[in-house]
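Why does residue order matter? Because the sequence determines the fold. Keep that principle in mind as you read this record.
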Amino acid sequence: MKAIGEVAAELGIEAHVLRHWEHVGALSVRRDGHGYRVYDDRALEQARTVLKLRRVGLSLPEVTAAMSPTKAAAQAVVKAKISALEEEVAHRRRAITFLQHAVECRHRYLDECPDCATFVREA
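Structure:
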């Protein structure tokens, strides 16, 4: 059993973050007889999972949904996030391609380059 400060220090986050996660329903923590939060192994593992999901880009509502008791609901959220991340990766690859061309472009101004104009017209 650990107190909120110990768990926060172990995870490298502030205690108020753990309280917020609990407030929005992403984390459930038992209370002792005096009303203090008590983190058992299950609650600590749940907090680690929330932290990992946040670090890979899920919002708190997505985290809460991804930790749904039904596997289908959790998978739907994760699949949607994978799709969004893949779209972001593709967008960034196109940006890198454009910028690499801009660096190597033989034209003085990018708007004089037909290749740059093609990049500009792409969505």
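The mean pLDDT is 91.
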